[in-house]
Structure formats: structure tokens, C-alpha cells
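#lab-general

N.A. 3:47 PM
ok so I finally got the sequence cleaned up, no stray characters, all 214 residues accounted for. can someone with queue access submit it? mine expired

B.Y. 3:52 PM
send it over

N.A. 3:53 PM
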Amino acid sequence: MTKTDTLNTALHALAVAERTPSADCLEELISQYPEHADALTDMAIELALDAMTADEPVEQDTPDAGEVSPAVSRAISHYQNIRFGLETKSLPVDGSGRVAAPIANPFQELERSSFKEFTTNMDVNTTFVMRLRDRQITPESIPVRFTQDVAEHLNVSVELLAAHFSAPAAISAGQHFKSESKPVIQRQQDFEQAVENSGLTIEQQEMLLNYLGW
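B.Y. 4:20 PM
back already:
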């Protein structure tokens, strides 16, 4: 069977599997046809967007050309994060199937000055960076473009950072806290909630939420 034949077979299997491809469905097909991971991911996004369009009522005001709605951007990030996740398959996983600790925490390697420099360069505050460090944001909600930018500023691979975000939430060892009480691991929030609840300025929030539209 030629590469074109296997591609057609893979795409057909995805098209007939589910109206909106699930993470498990896409993961299984990518595992069977790893050489067509990009094509399968792109088609999964198209199918999801088609389903969303069919379900949404037609509005009077048509969005500007090229404008991407938050729902669309979340769908795109969802499937692209699945692809990132498949690249960490060799890492240990916990009972829920998520990457288990210990995973290299790129934020843990930052000295105080480097931590402050990263915060400044990303134009965010310490609270938000600590949420990233302690994995308090649900990994599937983190925009791929944001992960790429953070990885670039940390000088680490996107795969390593994606694996860090996918590990269970935890307070990083070796960090110093002003309070003498033991810190409590907080429940994870999605990216948008974390942006809104981290004490960021309006301008900083708008900048981060723009990642949802890429």
C-alpha cells in the first residue's frame, strides 16, 4: 500500500469514526499512522469546526474575515495538544493516563533573578508564573502558541514543557514561602480562568487571552 493509500485510509477512518473526533479516537489513529499525524490532526480540527458551525445559530453580525472565535481556538488547541501529548508517550503515566511525576520542571531551574527576568519578558506577574510552575492550569486549555513562546523564553523544547504542563499539579520542591503554614495544592483552572484570577493588569490579561485566538 502506498503512502497516499494509507493516508486516504487513515483520513477515512477518522471521518467515519465520530462526528466530532474524540481525543482517544485521534490518538489511536495517530498511533496506527504516525507518518500522517499532521494530516489527521488537521482533519480532526476541520471536523470539529464543521460540527460547531452546524450547531451554532446564524447571527446577524458576521465576524470579520480571518477572525477566530474563542470556541474555534479552543478546538484547535485541543487537538494540537493531543499531538504534543503523543510525543511524551514514553514517559511514565499515572492511573488517569496523564504524565506522572517526576517530570523535569523547567521553572525549577530558574534562579531568583532568572525567574524575575522571565516574568518581565513574558509581561506577566509572579502569581501567573507560579501557576505555570506548579501546573495549576489544565494542560488541554493552554494554547499551543503560548506553550511555544514560554518554551522559547525558557530555552527548553516544546515537548519538555508540554510534558511538564501535563504532569499532576504540585507545589515545587525547594521553593520558599513567606507563610509558615504548609502550602496547599490548588485545584487546576483552565487557561482563561487562570489569566482572570492571577491579579494581572487588564493589558496583561488581554495580551494572554489573545493567545486563544491564534
